[in-house]
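Incident review: delayed structure delivery

Summary: a single-chain prediction request sat in the queue longer than the usual turnaround. Root cause was a stuck worker, restarted by the on-call engineer. No data loss occurred. The affected request and its eventual output are reproduced below so the record is complete for anyone auditing the incident later.

Affected input:
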Amino acid sequence: MKNKFFKRQMADYFVTPRMLNHMEITHGGTLLDNADSAMGLFANSYCHTRTLTGRIDKFIFHKKSYAGDHICFCVTLLKTTAKTMTIYAEVNRISLDNSSSELIGEAVFTYVAVNANLEPISGSIEQYRVTDAEEKEYIESVKKRFGIK
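Output delivered after worker restart:
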């Protein structure tokens, strides 16, 4: 069975003129907001409960994007604890015919599983185990680049 928490395509959208900043490029907050939404839905699907963004560990902007760009997120679960999930996303610009993509940013966020009162739920997250060697190698390389233990 394919690991649905490894390099999963999530939440694509097109950049509109309203998403631009004063320099006519996509506002960084727009990318951050959309990444958080995509990664949060991904976190919810892993733990089958509500989650909140506990921490924005890192967000790196590699390239500019503009109105009309097609943006999507390739999301991977890096690690879990009893109540958190650390998730990585590649922010990609996709060609209109989906034939190519270009990395324009990267994000690592940590999400916390919460109850209906938005209080952390300890022990509610199943430990994440990766058995595929290529997936392990990729995850370990991302963790090393971002200083995640």
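Verification: The CA atoms of residues 56 and 109 lie 5 Å apart.
Action items: add queue-age alerting; document worker restart procedure.
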